[in-house]
Amino acid sequence: PAWSPQASLIAHTTAPLASRVSVPPLASLAPQSLQPRPLEELSLEEQEKVIIEDLLYVFMGFEGQFIRYVGTYNPLEEKDRLLGPSFRLLPGLDPSLRDLTTTMLRMASHYVAVEAFIEVQSREMYGAVNHALCAAVRKLLKDYLVLMAQLEHQMLTNSAFTLHVLNLHTKPTSHMLSQLYNLAIELLRANGILDDEEDAPSDDDTDDLENILESLKGTAPGASKKMCKGGSVLGLITRRLASMSGDPAARTLLTTLLREASRPYMVMLNEWLHHGGIRDPHGEFLIKEQKSIKRERLDQDYTDEYWEKRYTIRDNLVPPQLEGVKDKVLLAGKYLNVVRECGGVNVSKEIRDVPTSFDDPRFLENVNSAYAHANSSLLALLLTTHALPARLRSLKHYFFLDRSDFFTYFLELGASELKKPAREVNVGKLQSLLDIVLRQPGSVAAEDPYKEDVKVAMNEIGLTDWLMKIVNVTGLDQDAATGAISSYTPATQSSAEKETKIIGFDALVLDYAVPFPLSLVVSRVTLTRYQLLFRYLLSLRHLETLLVGAWTDHSKVVGWRHRSGNPRLEQAKRKAWTLRARMLIFVQQLIYYCTAEVIEPNWQGLMGRLSTGGNEEEGSGVKRTVDELMQDHVDFLATCLKECMLTNSKLLRINSRILSTCTAYANYTSSFSRYIISADPELAKTGNVAPPDPSKLDKLEDLLQKFEDNFSRHLKILLDTLNYLAATETVVFLSLCARLSTAGDGGEREFG
């Protein structure tokens, strides 16, 4: 067949500037009539002339007449082009010309490889940083082609233009292409294109939808699971720059490439630092956004997921220049993002006068100033605009029963409803009663602008059961001091627990609607800590009310007031009075300790730290961060839980038994009154009373002895445990021991 090679257009790729002209046929396939004269037949001058002409073709990626691709090279194979072709010289060339020509052919191989590298790395999936790097390299190759045109002009017009002159003119360019080639090979290996067929396992966790979708984006045809883009590319160039610091030409070249490649990354960085937004269509920025985590879910977020996981750092995409300040970069954008969602950032405002590349001397200053500005903006938003201290004071009134005259009134009004089993309580009725009480003139709550946010709820899991679940699941014994409590999700009840129904007083809990952005500080998990403390304090207050009711009975009911002639009966009465007094002392001392010695001092400390957070000046640097403020709040609650004995499983069990004993005793007072009247012969003579029954007195003494033994034994165990813990970890328990020992005086004889 006749030799008629045709050029054609090839299909589009996602690299917009990639060549679409088909590869020319190999020179070795040309018919014999088109083959050149053998080199042996040419003189030395003629050989030099044709070799120079051939070299200019080869330098631009084409085969010459006498310089051709080796037989193993296939220009249609992408990997062959990326590694660069090897060339062979036709036989017969003079040795003096062959060695010099062979040396110069390396530049041609590098040019072809770099050109193929640009076509591959310019594809969409490799991201904006790779695209910017390719644009910078393409600009250098354009200068290279200009040099080829100048050399061709010299060859045509200058008779003194020899192979040695050509070699001298191409030396600097050859060195540049060698550096570009080595960088390209390193990048292609990092992308898995030139590695073995086995892909290295990915470090990314693909447990969630966001990561799965992101990994699927990279599985387009020709893509590898390994992907070097964004900060990884900049890191690779930076490391190469450090290793080539002794070569001035290479250093200049790599510095230029790093500057140009970092420009799109700096655009993303500045957008994040100054607007709190992420424009990262290719997933190459060091901050990753989980768009599936929305702020609308904050009211059900028991793991602080929105704050902790919505924005995270991709450690493998952090460039070395940002390694030392990556946490500041993350926090600056996170803070500003919150301010932006509250309308505090003008995103339409153009970002001006900021560094546009990594080598700008203001680079680190830009990060630090953006971090300081974002921190002060969010602090001002929380502390001033949204009045965080006032919100926390409001929470204290409701959840810690601080100045709680309104709540005592609410408990009195709702007593009939709260005595029912928890499942039968009418929550709507209780909410109505609470709304009435909160609007009562003269109470603290009447002046509270946030009283509409307080809601009544019922939790059918008993407080001790709930706390024991938390302690057992999260290891709260060890972690409470640092506030590392990860899961406050209310557990579902087991079938065994469903049988033990609790009444409304034990199930009552308050809920509180916190608006964004305060819900970041008072999140669902911190609000649950408030609820745990509230339920504990409420149980103590309710028990105190029951014991005071027992004291009222002891003071008013005729059976208790009447002095009997039976000494056994009088002794039983005194034992009942003493035990009631000891229990009341125990409960009142415990309430005083929890409120006056635990919550109040820690609260004052928290308020003191909050007040120092708001007085930050822009130019003085960051004195206090929002994360420190949030941690202070968590630490405050964790300390209160620990010092109120709610994080130690042993203390929880002992305390629960003592309080159960006291509650049972208080509820038994009316039965005691009937026993006393039944056992007193003098009261029986007054009429309307059954004849005295001596067995009733025996039962009364037996019950009282059981209550006293139970209370004294568990109180002794509690005091011993508190003394041990005070000596080993929680010093504040010493004062509680001193207070509670007064309640134990009555039992010293039996348990001394």
TrEMBL record:
InterPro entries attached to this UniProt entry: GCP, GCP_C, GCP_C_sf, GCP_N
Source species, domain of life: Eukaryota
One CC-aspect GO term: gamma-tubulin complex
Record-level Gene Ontology MF annotations: gamma-tubulin binding; microtubule minus-end binding
GO biological process terms on file: cytoplasmic microtubule organization; meiotic cell cycle; microtubule nucleation; mitotic cell cycle; spindle assembly
Gamma tubulin complex component protein N-terminal domain residues: 52-383
Domain Gamma tubulin complex component C-terminal intervals: 388-742
Keyword annotations of the record: Cytoplasm, Cytoskeleton, Microtubule
Coiled-coil regions listed: none
Compartment(s): Cytoplasm, Cytoskeleton, Microtubule organizing center
Keyword match Cytoplasm: yes
Entry annotated with the keyword GTP-binding: no
A Pfam family that the UniProt record links to this protein: GCP_N_terminal
Family: Belongs to the TUBGCP family.
Protein name per the record: Spindle pole body component
